[in-house]
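Q: I'm writing up a methods section and want to include an example of the input and output format. Could you take the sequence below and give the corresponding predicted structure tokens, formatted cleanly so I can copy it straight into the document?
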Amino acid sequence: MALLGIDLGTSGVKAVVIDESSQVLGVGFREIPMEVPQPNRAEQDPEAWWTNAVMAVRQALHEAGNPEVRGIGCDGHMHGGVLLDRDHRPLGRAITWADQRAAELIPELEAEIGVDTFLAVAGTRPAAGFMGPTIAWLRRYEPGRLDDAATFILPKDYLRLHLTGHVATDISDASGTAMFDVRARAWSTELTERQGAPSSILPPLLESADMAGRLTTEAARELGLVPGIPVAGGCADQCAQAAAIGLVDRTSGSVALGTGGQIVVVTDQPMPDPAGRIHTFCHAAPGRWYQLGATLSAGLSLRWLRDRLRLTSSNPYAKMGTSATQVAPGSDGLIFIPYLVGERSPIMEPEATGAFIGLTYAHRRAHLTRAVMEGVACSLRATRDAVVAAGGCDRWLATGNGLSSPVWRGILADVYDEPLHFVAAPERPAVGAALIGGIAAGIYASYEEAADIARPVLHTTEPDPERVRVYEDVYARYSRLSELLLAEGRVARDD
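A: Here is the clean output for your methods example:
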């Protein structure tokens, strides 16, 4: 018996096959490009999601020895979405979370609807890249595209549509649209109407572990599976990851470093941050919520540097990590501000821009790499501090491909001045999706049972006292410079 999990990330799609005890039997991965037709856009082809998912699943099944799959779950990156016509065909490319076209409307939406209303109902301030503000932008600038839409769905929902033939979204993903009532776990009529989203395009809602349908004959043929396998409603990526690392209460929080960076703490009631620095969303577990702080350009910053330096050799990230060890903490005065696509927590500035500050002739490629790692760590500390101020947790579990790098993990532990308990398994979100598929299939009785089965082996990285002292100064300088950069950006936009 096996379970299949499909994790739709921003940079690629990963599939895993696990057994009932959550041991990984096979893994598949395919990279997915991001389309940037102009500076403030970030789009992807929905069909590329599915075609690459098919290849990733086939690879994972082959590696696992083609076992009998009893349940399927999907998770994916949040906030963005794809408009569908009445035949479930995409109306153009999907608009992702990294897209900033709606940034100009955020002040207007907050003024008209009210920041307090957004926080009280949606658990979050609106942000560029959220589907609510994106719909408001489409209503103003591309009304025909919106009028032609029969529905919209979130990214992982498009995979589930291919799997089952049914349109829906789940509670956890819907709560990241800025159109959802996180207390009622239902669409907010006020927020949808005032952002220009007609009720007709709102997809039906499921809890994450509900059975959304069964694998169709056509999808089974493409994937190399048998028809009729139960498919779960699925969930947002952070919820899937939480399931796979045993995150069920405030005992532990997580810091994840993938394309973006996320800080997550699970709560037993909705607890919106009055200052609006972080988000409160519905968890995949019924009767649970979570606080989320997000750094938009985490691993994305290193990917950007890789591409600009044209590092095309095999395993470029490992080589970049090795080069970073050749540079002392603090990168000889070089500071990187990672606001490449705006920034979310704790500043909520969609039009923020990044920078290298302190660059000299003496700085080399290795300095750029280490400065990027340090700048992302400083951004994640600012996010961590906002989450702690809103409640916090007892210890931090570290996850994500970025923190598989011992160099980056050590930098973050030093910047945090806290131990990081690393989950040494980069496929955790896909494992979590598979476990939720197992709940829908009746393999596990509850989210808590699945999460308990999945508790992973941890490897602890302790902060180094000497480097901690260095990074206290680095973080203080980073904070001053980032605020100056933000202030300058506001002045420039006002001129």
